[in-house]
Design a protein that fits this description.
The protein is α+β, with helices and mostly antiparallel strands. Helix content is 31%, strand content 33%. The protein starts with a strand and ends with a strand.
Amino acid sequence: MPVNVDTVINRLDQVAFGKIVHDVMRCVFDIHNEFGRFFDEKIYQRELARRFPDTQLEVPVHVTFEDFSKTYFLDALVARSAIFEFKTVEALAARHRSQLLNYLLLTELSHGKLVNMRTEKVQYEFINTTLRLCGRTGFQVTAEGWQEFGGKPVRQWVEAFLGEVGTGLDNSLYEEALTHWIGREEPEMQEVEVVSNETLLGLQKFRLVAPDVAFKITAFSNATDLFVPHAHKLLEHTKLQAIQWINIARNEVSYRTIHQ
């Protein structure tokens, strides 16, 4: 299996999940009142596990494909069925919601909860999804002016990988896996000169699929044409000759090569 969790997972309906959340959040509020808001995430997690039965911390979730592997860790898994992701930040942001959604999709659970302990009062949000793996692998494919570089069939590999793990996951996972498969001898992120009127402004790191050809994976659901003009501007100020752009939306995967 491409995704394995180091424990048994039980999928709950919303009512059963709500009962667990009610009890857990009562503990969370008590912990916040007693400990305050200035400790690290791990302190709050461990105190929750001490107070609340059947709480597992830092549960590994392994993603493997061919010889690529990546491990995520669930902050707290209660009753083998409810994921609680703890944060100690000024405010919850989109990246935190995406992280928990990524965990739900990987574990095929429907409900999770973000908990921020840094704020004066506990900040929390529900994250829900009805998507299952079988619904994330039935994507359509479009290719507009796609060109392969470097002697390896990128498009073929990406579609094989998505056929195993599905769409909707963190872009960083797709980029790390593709970089690993490309297997270039250079560092994973390579520095490229940025110039203006022959003046060197500095170096910026890119993932390369071949010498002077970068790749970028996005997850736009609409307005994808906005990417292209800015990609051209980037190419004008670097030595890059092209960008391999792969957009992984929920139901469609598109490929496009953008030349200088």
